[in-house]
User: Fold these one by one.
Assistant:
Number 1:
Amino acid sequence: LLFLSETGGKDRRSGLILTIPLCLEQTSMDELSVTLDYLLSIPSEKCKARGFTVIVDGRKSQWNVVKTVVLMLQNVVPAEVSLVCVVKPDEFWDKKVTHFCFWKEKDRLGFEVILVSANKLTRYIEPCQLTEDFGGTLTYDHMDWLNKRLVFEKFTKESTSLLDELALINNGSDKGTQQERERSIDLNFLPSVDPETVLQTGHELLSELQQRRFNGSDGGVSWSPMDDELLAQPQVMKLLDSLREQYTRYQEVCRQRSKRTQLEEIQQKVMQVVNWLEGPGSEQLRTQWGIGDSIRASQALQQKHEEIESQHSEWFAVYVELNQQIAALLNAGDEEDLVELKALQQQLSDVCYRQASQLEFRQNLLQAALEFHSVAQDLSQQLDGLLGMLCVDVAPADGASIQQTLKLLEEKLKSVDSGLQGLREKGQSLLDQISNQASWAYGKDVTIENKENVDHIQGVMEDMQLRKQRCEDMVDVRRLKMLQMVQLFKCEEDAAQAVEWLSELLDALLKTHIRLGDDAQETKVLLEKHRKFVDVAQSTYDYGRQLLQATVVLCQSLRCTSRSSGDTLPRLNRVWKQFTVTSEERVHRLETAVAFHSTAEKILQECPEQPDAFNDMDQFDEIEAVGKSLLDRLTVPVVYPDGSEQYFGSPSDMASAAEHIREKMKLVSLKKQQLRQPEATTPES
C-alpha cells in the first residue's frame, strides 16, 4: 500500500494508469479503499472521464488477496475503471483460476480483468508508459512523488484554511460600525499559521514544479504530461494569487489594527497618568500644607515631599515616553487620528505641567520655610549668646578690657539687628508664597491651614522682636554701667597720675630747687617762682582729690568698692603733706635768705662818713645771727610727718650755697672791722 500510486503513465486510451502493488503481508482492505479514494480524487474530471487502467501486481501475493482487491474495485471505482491487468507470478494459479474466471464476470464487475505476465504487459500498455518493474522505460520515483504530494497537500490545506481565516478577518474589518469591526477583529485577529511561511512554501513548490517542467529534475527524472494534473500547478498559482491578495488586505488590517491598538494603548496610558495625577497624586499634595515649626520639622516635610516627587517622577517618565509616541504618530500624518492625538497630547501636557508646577511650588515653599526657620534658629542662638553675655557680671581688669567688651557687645547687638531684619525678609517672602497657595487648591478651603502657618510665622517674628527688645534694654543698662566703669577706671588712672605728678613735683623741689640766690633781688625772684610752683602742686593735688571724689560717687552708683579708696587717696595725702612740709622749708629758707641778703647789702652799701653808720652796730650782730641760722638750716634735713627725712639737693650743692653765704658774711664782718677802726683812732687825735 505504501507504493500504491498513479505513476503518470497512460494507456492506449489516454487513461491514467493506477498501480496496486501487493505483498506477502496481510493487506488491509479498508486502508486500500481509503488510499484508492484519495488517488482517484487527484485527477481532474476530464481525466477521470477517460477512465483508468489498473495494474494489480500480484507476483508477491496470494490469489485470494488478488481476487479480493479486484472485487473491491467494483465497489470503489467501477465507473472509472476500464481495464484491470492482474500481473501473475511465475508459478501460475491454474487450479485457482478454474474456480473463478474474471472474463466471465465482466458484465457483473463493469470492467475487463485480464491475467498477464509482467513481460507481456506491453501488449496492453506501451512500454514508455510502464515503469521498470513491468519492463517499461517510464522513470518514476514513488518517494519523490510522495514527498512532493505531501508538500502540495500541506500547502493546499494550510493555504485554504489561511484564506478562510484571512477572509473572515478582512471581511470583519469591513463591517459598518467601529464597534463591530473591533469585535470581529478581536475574535479572529491572529491566523492559525504564519502567512509568510505558507507563501514561502507555495513559492518553493511552484518553483519546483516549473523547474521540473522546463529543465527536468535532479537524477534524470524527466517531466511527464501528468504532472500538471497530478500536482496541480495552476491550483498552486491560483492559491498563491489569492493568498497574496488576502494577505495584502490582512497586512493593511493589521496595520490599521496596530495603529488603533497603539492609539488605544496610548489613550489608556494617558488616562492612567491623568487619573493618577488628578487622583492619588493631587490627594498627596492636598494633605501636605504645613511648613513645620522648626528646622527638623521642615526637613521632615521636605523628605516627605521628595518621596511624593519620586512617585510623580515615575509618572512623568511615562508622560515623556507617551509624548514621544504621540509626536511620532503625529509625524506619520494620519489625518483621521490627528485631532484625537492632539487632544490627548494637550490633555496630558496640561495635567502634567499643572502637577509639576504644584510640586515645584510646594518645594519652593518648604525651602523658604526651611530658610526662615534656619534664620530664626541662628537669631535665637545669637539672642541667647547676647543674653548670656548680659547676665554675666562685668569684672574687667582695666578700661581697655571694658572698651573691648563694650565693642563686642555692640557688634553682637548689630548682628542681632541684621539677623532680625533677615528674619523679617524671609518671613515676608514666606507669607507672600502662602498667600498664593490657594491658587491651586483644587477648590479646597485652605484658610485654616494658611492661618496656622501665618500665625506661626508672625508669632516667631514677634517673639524674636520682643527678645531683641529685651536684650536692647539690657544692653543699654550694661552700656551705661560699662561707660561708668570706664569713667571709674579713668578717674582712678588720672588720680594715680596726679599722685605721680605730685611726686615728681616733690622730687623736683628737693633736687632742683636748691639755689638761694646771690642777692636779695634774685632770692625774691626765686621765692616768686616757688610760689607759682606751689600753685601748680596745689592744682595737681586738688585735681587728684576731685578724681578720687568722683570715683567714690561712681563706686556708689556701680555698687562696688573701688581699689583707689584704700590706696590712691592715702598716697595722694602723704605726698601732698611731704610736699607741703618741703615747700614750707623752702619758703622759710628763701625768706631767711632774702632777709640776710637785704641786710648784708644795706650794710655793705653804707659809707663810713655817714653819721649813723657807727651808731647801728647791732645790725652786724643781727646779720651774723641770720647768716648762722641760714647755714644751720642748710645742713638740717626736711623731716616729714611719718618721721622720714629728705635733704635738698646733694651735699655739694648745699656746700656751694653755704660757701656763698659765708663769703657774704665775711664781707659784712670786714665791713664791721672797717667801721670800728675810725672809732678807735678818734680819741687819740
Number 2:
Amino acid sequence: MSGAALGFEIVFVFFLALFLLHRYGDFKKQHRLVIIATLLAWYLCFLIVFILPLDVSTTIYNRCKLAVNSSPAESNGSYVTLAPSKQKCFKPWSYIPDGIMPIFWRVVYWTSQFLTWILLPFMQSYARSGGFSITGKIKTALIENAIYYGTYLLIFGAFLIYVAVNPNFNLQWNQLQTIGIAAANTWGLFLLVLLLGYGLVEIPRSHWNGAKRGYLLMKTYFKAAKLMTEKADAEENLEDIMEEVRKVSESIKYNHPLRKCVDTILKKCPTEYQERMGRNMDDYEDFDERQNSYPSEKSLAKLHKQVIYSVQRHRRTQVQWQILLEQAFYLEDVAKNESSATRQFVHTFHSQEPENKIIQYFYTPTVEWYWECLLLPWFYRVLAVVLATFSVIVVWSECTFFSTKPVLSLFAVFIQLAEKTYNYIYIEMACFLTIFFLSICVYSTVFRIRVFNYYYLASHHQTDAYSLLFSGMLFCRLTPPLCLNFLGLTHMDATISHKNTQPTAYTSIMGSMRVLSFIADGFYIYYPMLVVILCIATYFSLGTRCLNLLGFQQFMGDSEMTSDLIDEGKELIRREKRKRQRQEEGENRRREWKERYGNREDSTRSRAVHTDQKESSFSETNANRPLSKYTRSNGRTERDRIELLQDAEPLDFNADSVNDDPLESDSGR
C-alpha cells in the first residue's frame, strides 16, 4: 500500500483535470499544443494539492521514527525529540518511501515554473497571432514577449544585486535558486491573498443566495439584459469583419500571390458567410497590379486575427444565451411549482434530450418537487453555514499562524493533536480538507473573474485558447505559495514554527527563505493579514459598487439601473418563452396531422406509384394514347396534401398581439 495511494491520486487527478478542461475547452477545434499545455499546467497544480497531505503524514512518521531510534546524545541537537524513546511509531497506510517525494516535488515544481514563466506566455502570443505560417507566428510571439522576459531579467537582477552587496551572503547556486523561488512566490502570494479574500466571502454567500430562488431569478433577468447587449454587439462586430473579408476576397483574385492567405481567412468564417462570399466570386478575372491597390500580408494577418476573435465571441454569446434561457425557464418553473397543491413538478417545456429510463423511474415528478422546492434550499443553507465556518477559521488562522507559544492557529492545533496519537487518517483528512477549501476559494475566483473580453473562462466548450493558457499560468503561479501558506497555517514549515525539526519534502525543495530575511520574517508573515480587510470589502460589495460607479453595470438590489435591466431581461425572457411555445404548438400540430393522415398519404403514394408503373407499361404498347389526365389527377392530390401540411405551420406574427391566456388563444384559433 506504500505507493498505491500515490499512484491512485496521480491517475485520479489526471482524469479530473481532463474533465474540467473538456468542460471549458474544445478538443475538436482548438490546437493540440494548446490543449496539451493547458492540461499539463492544470494537472500539475491539482496534483500538488492532492499529494501534499501524503507528504505531511510521511514527514510526521519520519519524525517519530527518528525520535524513537535516536537518543539525545546521538542526535547532537540536530533534531528535537517529539516523542518518548520507548513509544512505537506506526507506519501510515499511505507511506511513501524515502527519496521518492523530493524527486517528485522537484520535477513537478520546476516543470510548472517553466510552463508559467516561459512556455505558456509564448504560446499565448502564438495562439493570438494572425500569421499564416509557423515562422510568422513564432516571430510575432518573440517580439510581443520581449518586454515580458525583459521584466523578469530586471527583477532577478535586482535581487541578485541585493545579495551581492550584502556582505553576509556568499553567492552560491543554492542561494541563487532560493532567490528565484522567493521572487516567484512573492508575486504569487501577493495575488493569492487578493483572490483568497474574495473567495472566502463570496463562496458561502453565493450558496446562501442559492436558496433564494426569487433572488436567483432576478439576477438571471439582469444577466439576460447584459448578455443580449453583448450578443448584439458581437453580431454587429462579426458583420463588420465579414464585410471587410468580402471586400478583400473580391479584390484579391485567384492568381494573386496572397490568395492563399485569403482562403485561410475564409476557412475561419462561419459557413453561411463562406457560401455567400462564394456566390459573389468572379475568379475568371485576372489581377492587375498596376491598376488596383492590394492589402499587404501584415494587414491580412491583422484581419485574420480579428476574424478568429469575432467568430469565437459570436459563437460564445450564442451558446451562453441558450444556456441562460434554460436557466431562466427552470427558475420560473420552480417559482410556479412552489405553490402547487398537487406537489408534482410540472415543466413548461419538455427536455430536448432523451432522459434515462432509470432516472425517470426513481426521479418522479413528486420526488422532483420535494427536492427542488423543499430540500434543495435547505441543503444550500446548511452548506453555506459550513463554508462560512471554514472561512472564519481560515481568517483567524491567517492572522495568528505566526504565534507558536501559544499556538493560536486552529489548523495547527488540529494537526498537533492528531500528531500526538499518530492518527494518520485524521491528519491526512484534516490536511486535505484545509488545502482543498483554500484551493476552491482561490481557483473558483480564477474561473469567475473576467477581464473584459481578453480573459474569460466560459463553460460548455466556449473558452478561447488565450484564456485557457492564461488560466494555466495563474494556476502555476498561485499553487506553490498556496501550499507554503498551508504549511505555515499548520506549522509544518520550520520558518514559521521556529523548530529545528525534519522539514517536509516540499519545503526542502523550496530552500531556506532565511537568505532573504525581510521576505521570510516580514512579507510572508504579515501580508496574509490583509485578507481581513479584503473579506470586509467583499462582504460590503465595495468592489461591485466601485465598478457600478465607473459605468460597469453590476447586480445591486438598491440601484435604479439594476431595476431597469431586470425589467428589460424579464421582457426578453417572456418573448423567448412565447416564441418557443409557438414552435412547440406547431410541432404538435404537425405530429397530430401526420398521425391522423399519415397512413392515408402512404396508401395514396403507393397507388400513385402503381398507376405510374401501369401507365409506363401501357405507353410502351400504345404510345399514341393520351394519359395525362391520370397523372395530373394523382399529382394534384399529392400536391394538395403537401400544401395542407405546410399550412399547418403556425405563422410568426407580432408578439404584442398574442394573448398570454392559452384558453383564449385556442378559442380564437
